[in-house]
Amino acid sequence: MRTGLVAFALGLLAPGFLPALPPFWLIATMPVLGLMVLPFRTYPLGFFLFGLAWACLSAQLALADRLPAALDGETRWVEGRVVGLPQHSEDVVRFELADARSRRTRLPTSMRLAWFGGPPVSSGERWRLAVKLKRPAGLLNPHGFDYEAWLLSRGIGATGTVKDGLRLQAAQGAWRDGVRQALAQVDAHGRSGALAALVLGDGSGLSREDWQVLQDTGTVHLLVISGQHIGLLAGLVYLLVAGAARYGLWPVGLPWLPWACALAFAAALGYGFLAGFEVPVRRACAMIGLVLLWRLRFKHPDPWWAWLLAFVGVLVFDPLASLRPGFWLSFAAVAILMFTFGARLGPWRWWQTWTRAQWLVALGLCPLLVILGLPVSLSGPLVNLLAVPWISLLVLPPALLGTALLPVPLLGEGLLWIAGGLLDWLFKGLALVAGRMPAWVPVSIPLWAWCIAALGAFLLLLPKGVPLRVLGWPMLLLMVFPPRESVPQGHAEIWHLDVGQGLAVLVRTRRHSLLYDAGPRFGEADAGERVVLPTLRKLGVQALDLMLLSHADADHAGGARAVRSGLPTRRVISGDPAALPDELQAGACDSGEGWEWDGVRFQLWQWSAARESNQKSCVLLVEAGGERLLLTGDIDSHAEQALLDGPLAAPSQWLAAPHHGSRSSSSMALLARLNPHSVLISRGQGNAFGHPHPRVIARYRRLGLAIYDSAEQGAIRLQLGAFEPPFTQARQRRYWRDPPPVGPQAKH
């Protein structure tokens, strides 16, 4: 039976690795084939087909509930109900709208919306909204967060921006939002947002600095409700009933064991409902229920059976949960603990159990964090030795009890005041540690090297005395010192990153790195911090020899602060240095300046008669082995005409579309003189500026240029000097992504 469950689980997981889903007729055939092989020794194949069919069907239904392509970018009046907990930050509120309806238009069941400058929105309200609709889409960068997969896993079929709205009905049944609002009004030493995260699983009240501290110290799991909190509460209730029965305080007519199990499970479910029943909570409730049932029936529970049944149960009810990193981290952490504490010849002392649990979990999760592209906390094993009991034993009891007693004057608020003070002390201590030891962002490694490192971590989790266990350390070090392919002498590796409506291009030679523009920043959305800096680190960039900011507009220089603070940068220059923040210490673009790195030539140009910021863009020419790339910033047709009279007006194989392909740029004179075979466009999907302009695209196509658009093809990598077609991130197909369009072939 256990073999069948494992096969069933593998079938449920399989679609996440498929480039495309099988057709519906094949999905319908799978259960029939499974029934045919079930009576034979190949019965695991039958269970696998059952799981695969169910997961594929669920994925097909989720894809069918997406916004139709014909409505992408259109503005429609939509009516629906706000669900979940809206997130209010600065001048924007983000929320989910369920049961969305519009006249004569089929809409997805659930949409995620943003309202800039809008009124407060509460859960349970009904609204009529004018929404600019968008199909689910995200930025595609090497080893980056897959926002589109996250949306699909949550059943969100569309995103959008609210232009106007009218509240039709007040909030109804939104008790979680009411609890959050009550917590926000409590004096908790400025930590009401952290209390809401701990009690409700709502992290929107935590600042970006708080999240960074939690990430650096490996304590995110303590503030976002995890199975540890659920298990602690259930265990406390069970022990209270058992203790009362032992000392004669439990009613004689009531059997204590069934009541202890029932009350413990009820407490776990109650906390789960309060927390919104995310994947870690579902896993914990399922495992606690199974362990308690086993304890009631057989007295000696089998934790691996509970783990496997919980794993399969979560996937049966939510097959798309495997697309979320939290699913893997939650189940993996529990499996590591069960593996390391089981099958030991002798028990550890309590202090050995506690200390070894922390570093063994950190060791076991390290390969998983690397493959998921997540940072690894170096201080986590030590910090959690204190932080876990601090939260579990000191903060959580008064936080939960205070929330329950909020209707009682002074008592509930007093308990929350204590919990908030304890949280404030904890955050101050964590900030000190994070400042000295930030999280490690591992460099991406080949799959074969990761497999060896994962095997090394497994060996280190084995008991002492196991043969070859010591080999785990050098195998694990492959993650720290991975084999890397260096850029050949005389070549340049170009990464045209997908940063939305902005620009960021990484140029690497054998021993040098240059960043041309740093991505956009609009309000709280900083692509430099969230996209450019993590991508550079994962690509192995340890320092920048030059950051060249074409000009000072926010879509090109907005992310510069985050990049400079996160990576050593030897020099910063810009076409408009006076308009940049003083801390960047940017020098001026010296038109005509040129240099050579590792056999690759670089040359700068700027229009001396430029009047406004776009025209001041510092243009960069990169030439490797006779193959040329021209990075043009946001120059317009007037600056292009001046460029044609300068030294860079020579044929270039690659052209970064000036001003994101706007109507005022990419003049026919420029294209005719440069005669590129390919053009790179960096822009945001459905951007408000209409980039690229249809006339410009028609001009590119009329000249036979191959068009590489970041909004459709994600990040683009080319090997300058090799005269080879580029690699686009969208070529890594996943069934939840729309296939990239096939453009014209580049002419050589």
Automatic annotation (TrEMBL):
Stored Gene3D superfamilies: Ribonuclease Z/Hydroxyacylglutathione hydrolase-like (3.60.15.10)
Organism: Pseudomonas viciae
NCBIfam families tied to this protein: ComEC_N-term, ComEC_Rec2
Topology in membrane: Multi-pass membrane protein
A Pfam short name: DUF4131
Keyword Transmembrane annotated: yes
Alphabetically ordered keywords of this record: Cell membrane, Membrane, Transmembrane, Transmembrane helix
Transmembrane residue ranges: 43-63, 230-250, 256-277, 304-321, 327-347, 359-378, 440-462
Main location (coarse class): membrane
Keyword Nucleus: no
Location of this chain's protein in the cell: Cell membrane
All residue ranges annotated as the Metallo-beta-lactamase domain in the record: 501-685
Protein name, entry field: DNA internalization-related competence protein ComEC/Rec2
